[in-house]
Amino acid sequence: MTFKKLCTGYGMRRLDVLKRITSRDDWMKLWPKARHSYPFVWGDCWKAVAEFGVKDYAAELGFYLDILGMKVNATWPDHAMIMSPEGDYTFTIYRAKRTATELNLQFMIGNIQQAVAKLKRRGVTVVQDLNADWGEQNPMRTFKLKSPSGMVITLWGMVKQGRKIAK
After folding, report:
1. Distance between CA 69 and CA 24 in Å, rounded?
2. Residues with Cβ < 8 Å from 111, sequence gap 6 or more?
């Protein structure tokens, strides 16, 4: 069996289980344990980085640092490691002639309504306004914005039950 077929089998097993899960209890009972344990020990400097190329490096650098208020861990004239203010999340952008159109970023945040209001005041391009994707009764909300190079960024966050979405 090839490695790809092995991984496909693992993935198909999980997709099949999803068909039977209808509650958090089901998830806890039915979701398979990983075949292998996590093999990594994090280093001292940063934990993980997603790296992607951008066409307009200067605009992206200004967007992430000055519009979103993120920090730089390291930077060069054509490459920057960007992180959340607490250093919990890190990614790298670099100047590229071609960019990946299917890559998206997602952030789970604790203040989604306040963050959305601030970002709108800062002039971000809204792809999807703050939305209750799973109905008003579910506290999860999403908001999608676009970076200058077209990268879709989805913000996820919870609101208190019963609160309407502020438009």
Report:
1. 35
2. 157
| Cβ-based neighbours of 85, under 8 Å, separated by 6 or more | 69, 70, 71
CB 130 within 8 A of CB 167: yes
Tokens in use for 24?
């958090």
Rounded distance between C-alpha atoms, residue 15 and residue 18, angstroms: 5
pLDDT at 165 over 80: no
Sign of CA dihedral 44, 87, 48, 139: positive
Cβ atoms within 10 Å of 143's Cβ, excluding its own = 25
**Residues above pLDDT 70, as percent of the chain:** 90
DSSP string, 83-137: E-TTSS-EEEEEE-SS--SS-EEEEE-S-HHHHHHHHHHTT-EEEEEEE-TT-TT
Residue 125's identity, in one-letter code, is: T
Mean pLDDT of 8-19: 94
pTM: 0.68
Residue with tokens 């939305």: 131
**Residue in the structure block whose two tokens are 């306040």:** 114
